[in-house]
Amino acid sequence: MTLPDTLLSFLAAPTPNAWVVRALKHPEELLIDHANCEKKAAATAVNLLFRYAGHAELLDKMSRLAREELRHFEQVLALMKKRGVEYRSLSASLYAGRLHQHVRQQEPGRLIDTLIIGAFIEARSCERFAMIAPHLDDELGSFYRSLLKSEARHFEDYLKLARQYSPDPIDQRIAFFAEQEALAIHVDDPQFRFHSGAPAELAQVTA
């Protein structure tokens, strides 16, 4: 599947090749943190269901999204079991926190920012699935490619909801978070995670 131009242009910068190099050196962490990401995505959707109970379209979209993310979580767990990878605790990626620290506290700004961040997380996930899939074995590569359509749809749903519930245009806010998100994926993270940045030394080698 070719990624939509709207998704690629939404991201201010592509994932550095150094992230792929690092991911291939940490196959177990890739799967475990992928499972964690699916679980967290479902939890985020459910949290929005409870926090914004009066938003009818949000309820519909987030309910569907939560079910789909949990299904993906189950699929990753099944792959891990098949490969003898034990699901274990991993420290959280710093990526989401780097974005959420900029969320406005007053409504509707809080909701709009949260939805915009959701769109960036889904778009980046989709881009990384597409980027790493050709380097994986047939089973895992096929699985990651199968996720592209749903991840792209989740990106579109989050962005559509952000525009729908904002009383003002959100282009400037999107541009702000695009800059923050691009910075987040280039940070020299000490540990590999699905959304981590790339080590500076690898980024130099593979640039």
From TrEMBL:
Organism annotation = Halopseudomonas yangmingensis
Q: Which Pfam families match?
A: MiaE
Q: Which protein are we looking at?
A: tRNA-(Ms[2]io[6]A)-hydroxylase
For molecular function, the Gene Ontology terms on record are: tRNA 2-(methylsulfanyl)-N(6)-isopentenyladenosine(37) hydroxylase activity
Please give the superkingdom of this protein's source. Answer: Bacteria
List the InterPro entries hit by this protein, alphabetically: Ferritin-like, Ferritin-like_SF, tRNA-Hydrxlase_MiaE
Q: Name one GO biological process term.
A: tRNA modification
Q: Which PANTHER family match?
A: TRNA 2-(METHYLSULFANYL)-N(6)-ISOPENTENYLADENOSINE(37) HYDROXYLASE, TRNA-(MS[2]IO[6]A)-HYDROXYLASE
